[in-house]
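User: I'll paste a sequence; please echo it back and then give the predicted structure.

Assistant: Echoing your sequence first, then the prediction.
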Amino acid sequence: MGRGAGNKKEISPEVADEGTERGNWDNQCDFFLSCLGYAVGLGNVWRFPYLCYKHGGATFLIAYIIMLLVAGLPLFFLELCIGQYSGKGPIKLFGRIAPAMKGLGHAMLVITFLVVIYYNMIIAWTIFYTFAGFTSELPWSACENTNLFSQNCFTVPQEKACFANNTLDTFWNKECTAVEKLCESQNMTLSNYIDAKQRHMCTKVYDKVVLNDTSVCDIVFLRPQVANETGVFCGTYYNQTQITCAYLDKSAGQYVDEITGNITCTNVHRELQLNKVYNRISASEDYFKRAMLGMDEDTTWENMGGIKWELVLCLAAAWIIVCLCLIKGVQSSGKVVYFTALFPYLVLTILLIFGCTLEGAADGVIFYVYPTYEKLQDLNKVQVWSDAATQIFYSLGPSFGGLITLASYNRFNNNCHRDALLIAFANCGTSIFAGFVIFSIIGFMANSAGLEVEDVIKGGTGLAFIAYPDAVSQMPVPPLWSFLFFTMLITLGLDSQFTMTETITTAAMDQWPQLREHKGKVVAGASLIGFILGLSMCSRGGIYMFELINWYSASWSLILLSIIEVILLMYGYGFKRIFENIEEMGIKLPTFMKWYWMANWLCLTPGVLFFVLIMNFVQYTPAYASNIVLDEYYFPGGIQALGWLMAALPIVFIPCISVLQYRKRKNLGLSTSWRAMFTPNSKWGPATMTNAPAASKEKDPSYINEGFKYVAETNYL
């Protein structure tokens, strides 16, 4: 190993056989599209938009881009380098770089395994929607008079139809209802006023309201300015604060306190638009929670309900697809990605063009990209940075082991530097692009419901299954667009699922080479195990198990693994050796990029991730999910403990495997010194010379470890 070492040594027949057995990409386009498909997944159109929505749009976008530059991209390139150089999966790779850190590869696989279990559940949901859309009218396009839709279900077309039939009617309780009846159901009365859209309003009466000098017009309990009303603004000033929307009416008991300057109102009548009278729920949100998930008002962790067999069948279909596409290894999956990696861009572009034509789309886009002063204050919250870092890991996939696995099937002299830059920016560009799509739709939904953009949807992981379906139901020939959209979601999910499942099966076959002759059985076995473990998410309360795994499986533990990985490679293996390996693969780095990688790998990346990790504990928030009744249903204490155990499980593998390696080396009479345990063993080397004699490596001066300044001793583990 070292500069030029790869060209000096002959490739042994054993290595050639090993490479043939293990498999390689047929061409570099297969690898590039597989990497792109792995990076560009459901996280771009499902997880990224809902995190943007959760953190106020532009705030999260800024944090996301910064985390890409200082954490995501450096780790992405680093893993492509070491995977391509070694030609091994994560377990073998880290076991050969530093025997004591072999558990790092196991830890990555544990996280990948946990994500694989729930990730395929999202694909199962998309399969459910795909088949549900095979109707002349999409089932989530209207509030049907069934128990699958709630009393507060609301759609604009149905409301317009009711208003056209009778101006005193509105759509409520899944039918045309008199506004007066709706007001009475909410302990209000029918108002004498109408709003700007000529809809009747409800009046709510308060015995007494005191407005202090900090009140502003959009939150006071006073009559708003409406279409058919005239009046005199009070224009009262107190401490330089102008109250601009209060009407003084002494006969109604409104007066200004001469001592405090506060406006005190008695017997206040507040005129409310109907969208403020009750919490309107879109038909698509009702369908997602009630029809697809099967949730009820009393569904909690303690009351999960029975199995929803439609979801079981969809989950089985998802795993069958994964199994069939991977059963022949990278040669088969490499061809599938020609369709799965490119098709989503076509559908997203069409949805964006259509979304921009919808009324109110601009409001959603402004919410997404415009950084107001209030939003920028949220950058002080560590949760924003933690979610941005986690999303980068979900998007690009470092520290899951998938990138190492994909690169390990590469040609030794492939330009993975070019691939890393193109794929990383294409991935994040796709996230931002998908954000424009979904926020244009959310803006339309807010305009239709008469709500602010931040209030139109409760958010949560179902955001993409609420906003997108609502959009396709508005398009011409809705069933056709529904089919195209959910097919796109399936292809997005499968790309990432292929790589994560391949990571697990590759690790197994690298560990036990005899399994390579039974590759189909290994893939089928992994798929069966994943299906069985995913059944817990097919119950009517399965969304809670889904959220628990989503919350804890790849949270702080993933960030900690990344810190350990970059420190091991930079200060244990040696950053100079990394650059020599890059040169050995024939990759020429521009001076600026070399300094960029060095600054991040040695300082910025571990430093930023360490800060996020610490603050993740300091500002810990218990796991919760959005259900039918509550926006934030917090899981019981015992379940939170289960989540912590899940998060800690991957980390436990590192010291445990290290102890096993120590005992194994001691039993074989090999050195167990600190240096020996953290020094590359005799099997470490370029992929073209895995079995080269250890003596030739020991003489190579590049084997001097940057961290220990120590020449590697012979190490057979």
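The first helix runs from residue 5 to 8. The chain has two domains: 5-136+283-656, 153-277.
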